[in-house]
Amino acid sequence: MTLEEMDSVLLKHKDMYMGQLFNFLKIKSISTDTGAIRQCAGVLKDDMEALGIRTRMMETDGNPVVYGELMNENNRFTLLIYGHYDVQAVEPLELWESDPFEPEIRNGRIYARGAGDNKGQLMAQLLGIKTYQKLYGELPINIKFVFEGEEELGSVHLPEFVDKNKALLEADLVYTADGSSHNSGNPLILLGVRGILNFEMTIKTADFDNHSGNTGNIVPNPVWKTIELLNTMRDENGNVLVEGFYDNIREPSQTDMRLLSSLPYDQKDIKEKIGFTDLNMDGETYYRKLTMEPTFNIAGMESGYTGDNAKTIIPSTATVSIDMRLVADQDPADIFRKIEAHVEEFDPDIKVTYRGAMHPSRTPSDLEIVQVVTDAVGEAYKKIPLVQPSMPGSLPDYVWTDYLGTPSIIMPYANFDQHNHSPNENLKVENFFGGIKCTCNLVKALGEYSKDS
Q1: Which one, 2, 254, 278, 300, has the greatest CB density within 10 A?
Q2: Distances (CA, A) of 132 to 104, 123, 140
Q3: What is the per-residue pLDDT across 25-47, written as a single tens digit (0 to 9) for each?
Q4: DSSP secondary structure string, 218-236?
Q5: In this structure, are 89 and 188 located in the same domain?
C-alpha cells in the first residue's frame, strides 16, 4: 500500500467523505443540549457500525460515551482513539458569516461549529480507518474508540468512566486528533497537555448597592477589595505568590528543552495570527511559557454597572473568575486548597467556589512508540513533524497516562487559525483529508511495528 493509493481512494470518495462530515456537523450537539447530544451520539454510533466497528452507547451520569472496537485475536497491538462529539455554544451569533450548523465551504475552508473542534478531526480518524479498509481489508492492529460528549464541559464524567472500565480500555497507545496544528503549518506531535483549575472568588461588602455619594468613603467597594486580593496572588512579572504554588512542578528535561528549541518561531506571523502586535520574546521563552509554565488568568469580572446610562453606585458584590493552566505534577486539588488558604488569610469572608479541573499529563519523549508515530506522521505529510512535549491547552489526557498507565500522543489535524470556540470556526479542506490520510498511514505503520517487535 502506497501513499499514492491512499490519495486515489481519497479523491474517488471525496464527495462521500465530505457529505458524511457535513451530516455530522449539522447536529447542534452543544454540550448542554441533551436532546441534540443524544441525536449526535446516535448518528456517530451508526457511522461507526457502518465501518464494522462493534459499537455501544455507554451511559455516564452526564452525556453518553460512544464506545467501539475492532478486535482480532491475531493482532498484538491495540490503539485507543479518543475524541469528543460535543461542541461549544455559538454566541455571539451575529459575528458568524454563515449559519454555524449549516456547514459551507469558502476559500478552501469548511465553516461550522465543531468543524475543527472536534467533529472534523474525529471524523477524519474514522474515515482514515475506512480508507485503510478499502485499500487493504482487515486491520493489522486492534482499535478501540472512546468518543465522549462532555469535553467542552471539562470532561466531568470521563475520569469515572475510565476508572470503571480499565480492563475494557486496555491499550498500548492512546491517539487523539484534537487542537490546532503549528502556526508554520508543519505537522505537530504533542506528548502532553497542561492541566486546568477553574474557580471563582466572590466578595460581598453590603446587602445591596449604595449611592456612591451618600455612602462614599463609608461603604467599601468590593471591586477595590478584589483588586487588592489579586495583587497578593500575582506580581507584575506574572509570578504566582500563593504559598506552595510552584511545589512539585516537574522541570523540563534536557530532551524537552531540545525539542522546544527546535520548534520554528516566526514572531511576525504569530503576532498577526493571535492579534497581539506587542509580542516581544524569543522563541525559547515563547514555547517554554506556553508549555512548561503554569498560568494565572483572570477570565472575567462581574460587578456594578457599565451600561450607557449614568448610575453612580457602590456595588455590593464583585465576582472574579480565574482559570489556571497547570503543568506536569501539579495537582489541581492541592493548588485549590492552597488558594483557599491564601484567601482565608486575606479575608475569611470571601467566598471561593471550585468550578472544575483537569490534571496535566506528559508522555516521555524517549519512548520507542513516539518515534514510530513520528515517522508515520512524517511519511503521510512528507514533512518532518515537530514534536512538542506539551500543548498549551488542556485535554483529559491524564485519564490515559495516570489511570491506564498508557502512553498518549496528540496529533492535531486542524489548522492553526481554526477559530475554535469563536465565531467562524473552520477547518481547511486539505487539513481534513490530510488527517484521513495520516490516520490511515498510522494504522499501517503500527501494524508493521507490531509485527517487527
Answers
A1: 300
A2: 27, 14, 10
A3: 999 999 999 999 999 999 999 99
A4: TSPPHHHHHHHHHHHHB-T
A5: yes
111 grid coordinates: 465553516
Burial readout 89-124 (b: 16 or more C-beta within 10 A, e: otherwise): ebeeeeebeeebbebeeeeebbbbbbbbbbbbbbbb
Strand residue runs (E) in 37-132: 54-58, 65-70, 78-84, 104-106, 109-111
Q: Give per-residue pLDDT as tens, 216-239.
A: 999 999 999 999 999 999 999 999
CA dihedral 236, 239, 240, 242 (to 10 degrees): -90
The C-alpha atoms of residue 440 and residue 13 are separated, in whole angstroms, by 14
Per residue in 74-84, pLDDT (tens digit) is 999 999 999 99
| pLDDT at position 1 | 62
404 and 445 both lie in a single domain = yes
> Does residue 35 sit in the same domain as residue 171?
yes
| Calpha distance 195→94 (Å, rounded) | 32
Helices (H), 50-150: 119-136
Q: Which residues contact 307 (CB under 8 A, 6 or more apart)?
A: none
pTM assigned to the model: 0.86
Q: For residue 281, tell me if it sits in a domain.
A: no
Residues 342 and 423 in one domain: no
372 and 332 part of one domain: no
Q: How many folded domains does the chain comprise?
A: 2
Look-up: residue for cell 475552508? 109
Chain-centre distance for alpha carbon 305:
34
Distance between CA atoms of residues 223 and 212, nearest Å: 13
- Say if residue 87 is in the same domain as residue 137: yes
Surface-to-core class of residue 362, CB atoms within 10 Å of its CB (0-12 exposed, 13-18 middle, 19+ buried): buried
Concatenated DSSP letters for 249-313?
A: PPPPPHHHHHHHHTS---HHHHHHHHT-TT----HHHHHHHHHTS---EEEEEEES--SSS---E
- Regarding whether 183 and 119 lie in a shared domain, the answer is yes
Report which of 190, 169, 170 is spatially closest to residue 179, judged by C-alpha positions: 190
Which three cell numbers, joined as nine digits, stand for 394?
488542556
What's the confidence (pLDDT) of residue 183? 81
Do 336 and 223 touch, CB atoms closer than 8 A? no
In terms of residue numbers, what domain contains 112?
3-193+361-452
Taking residue 31's Cβ as centre, other Cβ atoms within 10 Å add up to: 22
Q: State the average pLDDT over residues 342-357.
A: 96
